Amino acid sequence: MGAHRDDAQGPDEAAAAEARAALVREIAASGALDDPAWLAAFEEVPRHIFVPYYFVSRPGGYDRLWSGDPDPVRRRRWLRGAYADGPLATRVRDGELISSSSQPSLMARMLVELDVRDGDRVLEIGAGSGYNAALLSHRLGEERVTTIDLDPEITESARVHLAAAGYRPAVVTGDGARGCPERAPFDRIIATCTLPSVPRGWLAQCTPGARILAPLATGLIALRVGDSVDRDCAEGRFLHTAAYFVPLRGVPGGGPLTRRPVGGLPRRAAENDLFRFLLALTEGSLDPHEALSLWERERRPRRERYGVTVAGDRQWAWLDDPSGPYVWPLSPGGP
Q1: Which of 21, 23, 164, 197 is nearest to 107 (CA)?
Q2: In 3-state terms, what secondary structure has residue 35?
Q3: DSSP 195
Q4: DSSP assignment of 237-294, as one string?
Q5: Which helix (H) or strand (E) holds 206?
Q6: Rg of the chain over all Cα atoms, to the nearest angstrom
Q7: Are 85 and 104 in contact (CB under 8 A)?
Q8: Cβ 315 vs Cβ 330: under 8 Å
Q9: Is the bond preceding 185 in cis, omega lying within 30 degrees of 0?
Q10: Which residues are catalytic?
């Protein structure tokens, strides 16, 4: 696997290998990497190749760190950041974050929860830096991996990074809300961008019993697609973990991230992550004060008590029971 260099300086490969090993130990210690196959992928896929530059926030804007900086101190800072267990802003346009490389431990949790089996075909929505597609390619084989993004600059960059790391999965420029019918069917779909709801076209591109894992309302929903008779249906619960991603573009509600106003609510609720999750999940259905009343009545439910059901053109979120008293419609998910 060749080293990627942006100029004559480039990264210190020995230091990169040491930093990668330390990151893998940290993720494994957190319990996020309990699958040997995924552990091997994180050990062998070099993250720094996929983030030759990234942006760190500072007052009034962003500071760019890159692998070819002539200042060795800044190059070391770049390398430390590339292997820190945190998200990295990889593309900023007009002051708005449009693409990032996700926190590695969260990526590990999502890949384990995707529950892939040998021979599975996977569609990734949101190409990002290409790092996630490389991990999938290591685990399943590049011919079984497709990653798609709406932005041609992002897909071209991901393709270059993947090739530099020795992987050539299908990298498609297109609307992820429509899936990728020319590469279907898929046994797994994983989104690395936040959805307002589940795009309708995805289910038709899935095999019976396929699994869909996607960020929605600051959580991660894990859906199981129906059998051959109920292919237009899917249902599942949220995982316990929080998840904050760049929104999926190309669908209604897929614009910049916003926080729903919570004026007049007590601080204990307004600043509580689980209450903010409920607010996001019930957007357009519950007034914030109604949401607070439900949240307190149900003893501040955790994410895993909530779920989503998709049935044809209808989809709804629910608490505890898809047919129970607490259900909220989600907007139809794109084309």
Answers
A1: 23
A2: coil
A3: B
A4: EEEEEE---PBPTTSTT-SS------TTS-HHHHT-HHHHHHHHHTTTTS-HHHHHHH
A5: strand 206-216
A6: 20
A7: yes
A8: yes
A9: yes
A10: 99
Instruction: For residue 116, give the amino acid letter.
Output: V
- Give the chain's residues under pLDDT 70: 1-11, 229, 250-263, 332-335
Q: How many CB atoms lie within 10 A of CB 266?
A: 12
How far apart are alpha carbons 53 and 91 in whole angstroms? 9
Per-residue pLDDT reduced to its tens digit, 215-255: 999 999 999 999 976 778 999 999 999 999 888 875 554 44
Distance CA 215, CA 221 (A): 6
Over residues 56-65, the pLDDT tens digits come to: 988 888 899 9
Say if residue 217 is exposed, middle or buried (CB neighbours under 10 Å; 0-12, 13-18, 19+): buried
As a whole number of angstroms, the distance between CA 24 and CA 28 comes to: 6
For the CA atoms of 171, 177, 181, 182, the dihedral, rounded to the nearest 10 degrees, stands at: -30
Give me the residue label for tokens 């237009």.
Answer: 232
